[in-house]
Write a structure and sequence with these properties.
The protein contains four helices and seven strands. It has helices spanning 2-14, 56-64, 156-164, 168-185; strands at residues 44-52, 76-81, 86-92, 98-109, 113-118, 125-134, 141-150.
């Protein structure tokens, strides 16, 4: 009961729109947002956007089922939904290991915004947000993703390199392009010339 009350309180504060999941306020400057797990000026932040020829409603619905994320995010092994606002994440770690954490959705605006953050005790403090905005001229939806990771001291370089490769920006850009393929064509092309499973609506 206490946990539910705390989550509801955070959501109420977050709906003011002062900050996104990575601690970036709506004015575009970085600051310490008390409602996220990664402090301003810490860790690695990546921000990318792409236009996808699908409606905000369709893209929001698919993304909101976090179990769909490993279908186009290469660094994720599994995301398991554990509650209405909570989930368990497993990512590829250094030397063939796995990095795990629990996360919660702390801000959500239907068909516009999903913001999540890791919970206390996670191996890697992290936060993320995805924004859906109708593109001009009926050209689909502009999707903007903001991710931020702050691993424990001494592990920053190795964990981020394993999660994203040498270029975090390039990896997130490729993830977004796979998301575009999945939503527009129903499948993701691979380097082996094979495809993933067909796209399905989030449950």
């Amino acid at each position: 009961m206490v946990r539910t009350k705390r989550l509801n309180r955070v959501r109420k504060v977050s709906r003011s729109g002062a900050y996104d999941a990575a601690g970036i306020n709506t004015a575009g400057t970085e600051g310490d947002n008390p409602n996220v797990s990664v402090r301003g000026g810490h860790g690695v932040k990546v921000e990318k956007s792409l236009t996808i020829n699908r409606s905000p409603e369709e893209l929001f619905r698919f993304w909101r089922n976090f179990e769909n994320l490993p279908r186009f995010m290469k660094h994720l092994e599994e995301v398991r939904v554990t509650g209405d606002a909570t989930s368990h994440w497993v990512a590829k770690g250094p030397a063939g290991s796995s990095v795990e954490w629990d996360a919660e959705v702390y801000n959500e605006k239907e068909n516009e915004l999903i913001a999540w953050r890791s919970l206390e005790g996670s191996e890697v403090d992290n936060a993320g947000s995805v924004h859906f905005q109708a593109a001009p001229g009926g050209r689909g939806t502009q999707v903007k993703v903001v991710l931020k990771y702050d691993p424990p001291a001494g592990l920053l370089g190795s964990l981020v390199a394993k999660l994203f490769g040498e270029s975090p920006e390039q990896q997130v850009d490729e993830d977004l392009r796979r998301f575009k393929q999945l939503m527009e064509a129903g499948e993701v092309s691979t380097t082996e010339g094979q495809t993933s499973g067909r796209a399905a609506s989030a449950k």
